Amino acid sequence: MTDTATVGTPKGFNKNTFWKAVYFVLLFIVIGGFYWATEQADYIWRWNRLPRYFYYVETIDVTAEIEGEVASITQKDDDSVVIIEGGGESEYYTIPGSDVRVSVGDTIYMGDPIGVYEEGRMGLLLDGLLVTIEVSLVSIFLGILLGLFTGLARISNNPCLKWGAITYIELIRGSPLLVQIMIWYFVLGTIINNLLAKADLFQIPELWFAVASLAIFAGAYVAEIVRAGIQSIHKGQMEAARSLGMTKATAMRKIILPQAFKRILPPLAGQFISLIKDSSLLGVIAIRELTKATREAVTTSLMPYELWFLCGIMYLVITFTLSMFVQYLEKRTAEV
Length: 336
Fold this sequence. Notes:
Elements: H1 15-40, E1 55-63, E2 68-76, E3 79-86, E4 89-96, E5 107-108, E6 113-122, H2 124-154, H3 159-173, H4 177-198, H5 206-231, H6 235-243, H7 248-278, H8 290-301, H9 304-335
Antiparallel strand pairs: 1-6, 2-3, 2-5, 3-4
Subcellular location: Cell inner membrane; Cell membrane
Family: Belongs to the binding-protein-dependent transport system permease family. HisMQ subfamily.
Organism: Pseudodesulfovibrio nedwellii
């Protein structure tokens, strides 16, 4: 009897564990290689300076606006109230805390310090992050509404609605977002605010033109996603609903759209993640979102490595959170 040698995977060898180890080794090599490259550039890392770009305490000087004499200093709760009289007029200054730098009877000249207090301020990056989140959320909400109605119009039998939807979709998808932002800010925004000014009405803040450009851009892509989702549902379902006496609108709302929603969630999530990243283009119209705030911080601090890494991580946190939320919605809708 002849023994046959078996050639194959050694006993106890786990292929999955091996490739996981390869991944971590490669990751370590990439991180180590980048660190070595920065060391060769003689770059000094200053991670300890980053917290000030989220929150910092500013020392504020309270200065006199008139010339005169300190008439009185009183305490009101935790604040100090200094009254200065001179030239037939008087001014009072409220100083949080008790760090008053003058005494009763002192002669004060315009611009002299009266007291000092500290106040917490929002850092540059945190301010930019909040603007990015605010603009993105409002744009996503408006983009969903616009995309839903445009998607329904796209498959309508009404030529006016259908051709109008096609025109809007092709115009928006066929031009760069940066150009659309410029048009909204410099052309449409100027025209709209000029018309409002002539009618003695309020002016629309530039932030809303930024939101409009993003929402209309997203709406065109959402419309095509909605159209594809609706058309992926078999026509027999609409025919069955109509045979039960439902109107076309009712069947669309109760039968077709709930099923289509489950199918369009992944592409919708991808579109919204792209929209959040595209909001970085708003810096060209002086909207201080996260990218513009980071650029300003780099200019004043000369810390490009730390700040741009931090900017990327903050975008990643936003997009990853949205991705996890969409996955949660997918699981919930799958259970229904």
